[in-house]
Amino acid sequence: MITKPPAERAGSEDQRFDSWKEIAAYLGRSEKTVRRWEEKEGLLVHRLVHEKRGSVYGYRSELDAWRTSRKEANRIEGLLLATPLSENHLPPPELPSPSPAARALIDPLPGIEEPGLETDKAPVDSVRAALVAADGSPKEA
Prior knowledge:
Largest sheet: 3 strands, antiparallel
Low-confidence stretches: 1-5
Number of helices: 6
CATH architecture of the largest domain: Orthogonal Bundle
Oligomer: single chain
Distance between the termini: 80 Å
Strand order of the largest sheet: 1-3-2
Order of helices and strands: HEHHEEHHH
Mean pLDDT: 74
Number of domains: 2
């Protein structure tokens, strides 16, 4: 089948673009961008599978419909982002820092001191003492 170049097909009812290059030119973007739109944004293109490689084509009406739907989705998304949150949807207040005692309980590396942080070493020392045998060697667990 021999197809006319896009310029000659422009008068037809539903213009067909027969490559990524033609689709990209129509949408005013790079081939890489329209391929990404097909993969991630749902740009409608059709594929013809061949022995080694496939080819793509798209119809003007479908590309226009996709572009219109994206504009509408972006408009709605913009409105949602621009709408201020009501008092019932305020973000939670910032949590206070843990107290030194609580910090000592959650400190993953006992023995490493942070400047200005007072900790109670008694719980760590009592556990350490319980794990050491009378002769000074570590107890087996």
